[in-house]
């Protein structure tokens, strides 16, 4: 198996650094760890598809089971090497899905991989046809298409999906009391939701009037736990900024959790005032001119 040996053959890459525990007495990566590297990359590939794996499989009515895994060793990796693990869906059969993987150190191709999965009924583990929608998602990703879409609208239009993400993130994950999460502003706010190609809401936020003329206030920013870092929060934020600009706001402000301050800084927000606590969590106000 020597196909797809150039970086340019791939769109998806997962970066990792070889740890001391992963090398053997020859001071090279122990062969069994390469399969772990590719399996780790596959998990990240699903995130690149904007699919929270378990929820996506539930919606599709099946699950994936490994049928075959083949490793092709060309050269060795060593401790502290920074590696890029590339993955690509190369074929979807009736019930099988074939991935090719390549392990790169810079431009050097070290190890190849072929993974064959079977889509099956999780109760009986008998194969079933790969859903047409999943086929389309693989094709769209490898063609460079966007796998999620952001829409803005009212609570009546978007509240069910937005509320589910907020409940999962704020109430269940961050343990914010539910009476603090829901308020009268939801009915009048502009809401934004990001949906993947299965129609699942994966991120949300809202826009309400700010505390000064010409200012909008963005809040309730939440992204599905397993899809953070995939650009979905940024897409929601930009959609809300556009909504603020369209209604004449000259500035947007938000209360950023301190753990998310770097995220907002990268998107052009600057701190304003002193840190404070909100719902028992450290925050800081941040603003951005439109």
Largest sheet, in brief, is: 7 strands, mixed
Percent of sequence in beta strands = 35-45%
Oligomer: single chain
Q: Please give the share of residues in helix.
A: 25-40%
How do the strands line up in the largest sheet? 6-7-8-9-10-12-11
Q: What's the N-to-C terminus distance?
A: 52 Å
**Poorly predicted sequence stretches spanning 5 or more consecutive residues:** none
Q: What overall geometry do the principal axes of the alpha carbons give? A: globular
Overall average residue pLDDT: 95
Total E-strand runs: 12
Number of helices: 7
Order of helices and strands: EHHEEEEHEHHEEEHEHEE
Radius of gyration: 22 Å
Structural class by helix and strand composition: alpha+beta
List keywords for this structure.
290 residues, alpha+beta, 7-stranded mixed beta sheet, 7 helices, globular
Give an overview in words.
- The chain is built from seven helices and twelve strands.
- The protein has helices at 31-48, 53-60, 132-142, 155-173, 178-181, 232-246, 261-266, and strands at 12-17, 63-73, 82-92, 96-105, 108-120, 148-153, 190-196, 201-209, 215-223, 251-257, 270-278, 281-289.
- A hairpin with a 3-residue loop joins strand 3 (82-92) and strand 4 (96-105).
- It starts with 11 loop residues before the first strand and ends with a strand.
